[in-house]
Q: What sequence folds into this?
């Protein structure tokens, strides 16, 4: 994969497959400690300690169509190649948290990529999940929680063209504004 | 973000969407499913989905549900898109680039013609 935003989409889908009802994605860029942190937190079915250990192994997967899983091991390798790491905290019946860190300025670090597109894809494509996105750059933060949108829309589906337009705009401008204010400072 | 403004926007949006739905009812529910497993994402499924959503936006199509699913089980044919129109049988397409996705939307979803070149045999 070419961007971290695609990895986030992939990890978030693991949470969806684990029957999570609430999923939070956090992206934190800290220029002072030169760290980039990605967190995906869910309240899905969780894993026991043995499964957590296995899940970083490329030759283990919960799927039945084939015996190789790649998402987590790929991301772990990418993080470790940039002086970072990948941690998984999970409790059966409670949920899972995946935390990935990178040295932000590392030459091999994958670009963040299109966060707005990843968030947009998740909100529209998995409407049964309550999504919360937090993107933070140093002291500035953009947060999107879909609760309000869903409450207001009632039975109008998220894939209605007017809603698509609204959501795309909201996410793109929120993220762009944050990134613009940041590049002015630095 | 200006929360209050966006709340008003949403209310207006809901009214508009409901109004429009009254005009288009009996056209039959369309469901589009995009495979978003690791392999699908790596093969470009996010861009395929993006093209589909942009088409819906541009053509102002209501009554279409877009869903994502994990691995569909045809790894070498990713990105995979499935189309279900009304009570017709599900059609599965493979190697759906954004361009192919737009063809599927135009020919299959809008005109009822299955795009045979990209159909996967079940």
A:
């Amino acid at each position: 994969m070419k961007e971290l935003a695609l990895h986030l989409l992939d990890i978030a889908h693991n949470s969806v497959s684990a029957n999570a009802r609430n999923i939070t994605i956090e992206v934190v860029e800290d220029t002072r400690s030169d760290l980039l942190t990605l967190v995906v937190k869910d309240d899905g079915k969780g894993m026991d300690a043995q499964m957590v250990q296995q899940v970083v192994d490329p030759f283990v997967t919960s799927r039945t169509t084939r015996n190789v899983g790649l998402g987590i091991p790929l991301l772990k390798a990418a993080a470790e190649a940039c002086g970072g790491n990948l941690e998984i905290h999970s409790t059966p019946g409670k949920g899972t948290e995946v935390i990935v860190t990178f040295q932000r300025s590392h030459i091999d670090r994958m670009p963040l990529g299109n966060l707005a597109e990843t968030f947009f894809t998740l909100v529209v494509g998995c409407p049964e999940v309550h999504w919360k996105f937090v993107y933070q750059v140093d002291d500035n933060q953009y947060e999107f929680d879909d609760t309000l949108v869903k409450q207001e829309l009632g039975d109008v589906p998220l894939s209605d063209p007017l809603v698509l337009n609204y959501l795309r705009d909201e996410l793109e401008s929120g993220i762009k504004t944050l990134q613009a204010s940041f590049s002015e400072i630095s | 973000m200006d929360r209050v403004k966006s709340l008003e926007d949403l209310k207006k949006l809901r009214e508009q969407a409901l109004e429009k739905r009254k005009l288009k009812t009996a056209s039959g529910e369309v469901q589009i499913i995009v495979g978003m497993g690791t392999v699908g994402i790596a093969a470009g499924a996010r861009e395929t989905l993006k093209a589909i959503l942009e088409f819906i936006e541009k053509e102002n199509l209501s009554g279409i549900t877009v869903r994502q699913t994990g691995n569909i089980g045809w790894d070498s044919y990713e990105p995979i898109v499935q189309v279900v129109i009304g009570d017709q049988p599900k059609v599965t397409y493979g190697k759906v680039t954004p361009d192919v996705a737009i063809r599927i939307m135009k020919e299959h979803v809008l005109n009822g013609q299955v795009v045979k070149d990209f159909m996967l045999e079940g």
Notes: The interface with chain B takes residues 1, 6, 9-10, 13, 16-17, 63, 65-66, 69-71, 74, 117-118, 120-122, 124-126, 142, 148-149, 152-154, 156-157, 159-166, 168, 170, 174 of chain A (CB under 8 Å). Chain A has one domain: 4-184. Confidence is low (pLDDT under 50) at residues 64-68 of chain A.
